[in-house]
Design goal:
The protein has a domain of 145 residues: 3-Layer(aba) Sandwich (Rossmann fold). Helix content is 49%, strand content 11%. It contains 14 helices and eight strands. The strands form two sheets. Strands 2-1-3-4 form a four-stranded parallel sheet, with helices on both faces.
């Protein structure tokens, strides 16, 4: 098996085979990172491997976590806790959580209460991006988190190691930006299912080891000769935290969509441009997040309204429509949809609202809705 397909099972395997392999080879410690955004450079600077934790997917049954959270809580929170109860997180030496929503905030406390042997470190993200103090404040918060992670690693974090870690992740983020740009320009050369698989793999590997895989994917995609199909170009939003099943992404594409932009795994590709080098590495990271990060539904930035960012994405990617694919019970996503819908209607951009859960197994209904949506657009275009 060659190319991206060999990694399909890897990204869904909650035994974390790539992480176990890394630990056996290096003897290093592992830090789990809950979405959306986690400062992965901090644990990496301490010789630890930051790993994305995106819940149990559709391979884990909930037997314990339901008793700790209400029924109207999103799937990823409960299934992440379930991973702890069934021993899937024993591989991790600590966990990073942050202030993206109330359930995620509470999950950090519930994790610490039930698994006191595994530190749950909480990152306070800035909420007022217009404050003149936001960059120095966030830099100091990153330093605090670095010190807490240093206690797990058993050694202090050094600025020189932080600069090295930023450089390592800059390479990966740059390669992902390249792949995303290629997908936007020629979606027939790399499908979103392929791109998502590769981006998800990055969250499970040392950046020094995932970078060659991304370079190979870029080369393969550039060499691929495929004729464009009769599909509509779509921007997909709403899946910034809980991730849809890979089969659902494939269903959207096979129903007639070229997904030319999305917000999957956004926290691992958050920087629009390279983080500035030199000087205080914590301040560099803080400034990049505050001033130059991609649109995040969990980032409150009055300087660039979220609906405006979506309209800009539609225009820059030459999209025909928008699909909002939101996780069930996701309050930040549903709040955003109200803003998106108004802006899309004002600009005359067609859109479709869909919901998903981790435990989805059947995709016929979703595929049928998308096919109807696509056919209506193609018909309108043909008769215009």
């Amino acid at each position: 098996m060659t190319g991206w397909e060999q990694y399909r099972d890897v990204i869904e395997d909650r035994e974390f085979p790539t992480v176990r392999d890394w630990r056996e080879r290096t003897g290093g410690k592992v830090i789990g990172c809950f979405p959306v955004y986690a400062p992965v450079e901090l644990p990496y600077a301490l010789g630890m491997l930051p790993v994305g934790i995106f819940g149990g997917g559709n391979r884990i049954e909930l037997a314990h976590a339901d008793s700790r959270f209400q029924s109207f809580i999103c799937s990823i929170v409960k299934s992440t806790l379930e991973l702890g109860f069934i021993g899937k997180l024993d591989l991790f030496d600590g966990l990073l959580f942050h202030s993206i929503c109330d359930p995620a905030r509470n999950l950090a406390s519930v994790m610490q209460r039930n698994f006191a042997e595994r530190p749950a470190i909480y990152v306070h993200l800035p909420q007022n991006m217009t404050s003149p103090s936001v960059v120095p404040w966030f830099a100091s918060e990153l330093r605090r988190v670095g010190e807490a992670l240093g206690a797990v690693a058993g050694r202090p974090i050094r600025d020189v190691d932080m600069a090295r870690a930023i450089g390592a992740y800059e390479v990966v983020r740059g390669l992902l930006r390249h792949l995303y740009a290629l997908r936007t320009e020629a979606p027939e050369r790399i499908s979103t299912a392929e791109l998502y698989t590769l981006a998800r793999l990055v969250t499970l590997m040392d950046p020094a080891e995932s970078a060659p895989i991304l370079r190979d994917a870029i080369e393969r995609s550039q060499q691929r000769q495929e004729r464009p199909k009769d599909r509509i170009r779509v921007v997909l939003v709403g899946s910034f935290c809980e991730q849809p099943p890979l089969e659902l992404i494939e269903s959207l594409e096979s129903a007639g969509c070229y997904l030319v932009d999305d917000d999957f795994l956004q926290g691992w590709r958050w920087a629009r441009r390279a983080v500035a080098g030199g000087g205080d590495p914590y301040e560099a990271l803080a400034r990049a997040y505050v001033e130059d990060s991609v649109h995040l539904s969990t980032k409150h930035d009055l300087r660039r309204p979220r609906a405006q960012a979506l309209i800009e994405s539609v225009k820059s990617s030459r999209a025909d429509a928008v699909i909002f694919l939101g996780a069930k019970f996701c309050e930040p996503g549903l709040f955003d949809y109200a803003l998106y819908r108004r802006a899309l209607e004002e600009h005359g951009i067609p859109h479709l609202f869909l919901e998903f859960e981790e435990k989805m197994w059947l995709y016929d209904r979703v595929r049928g809705e998308v096919e109807t949506f696509v056919e209506s657009m193609l018909f309108t275009e043909a008769t215009a």
